[in-house]
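Reviewers of the previous submission asked for a worked example of the structure-prediction workflow described in the proposal, so we include one complete record here. The input consisted solely of the amino acid sequence. No template or homolog information was supplied to the procedure at any stage.
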Amino acid sequence: MFIDIPEGKDPILYVWGELVPGIGPAASAFAMSIYEHSTLGLREFEAARLRIAQINGCLFCQDWRTERDGAKVEETFDEAVAQWRTTRDFDDRTRLAAEYAERFALDHHGLDDGFWQRMRTYYSDREIAELSMCLGSWISFGRLNRVLGLDTACVLPSHAGRS
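From that input alone, the workflow returned the following structure tokens.
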């Protein structure tokens, strides 16, 4: 971890809640709203979220699985996301969500007319705007957690000891 955390404080709660009180709680509220108010399907949501997590390298984000009404994606979903171009586990919307996530993170200047035509075939304007806001949140906050080393403070058991 690259920030000094006072003895007895939870690193995540300290950085996101106390260290920068004018920004942290607002950022946290935005990050949580993505999960609480998304209207995207679970598979598209998780494909985009996991692709950003893989790009960011955030250990916690890679381990996390969003749950909706007791449902989660399958255990091997992260492997399918890593192979989004060729996996047979994705429908067109899910594959496009993973592609958009990768291009949004790595080549946003390369989002050409052909890409946008495909997006508009499968996603409404509202869904495109929502997915874009989700991607922005995941890139910024997942990257923040990884860069500051906070992802090692909130890692799920399957990644314990990794960095």
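The chain has a mean pLDDT of 91. We consider this example representative of the routine output the project will generate in years two and three.
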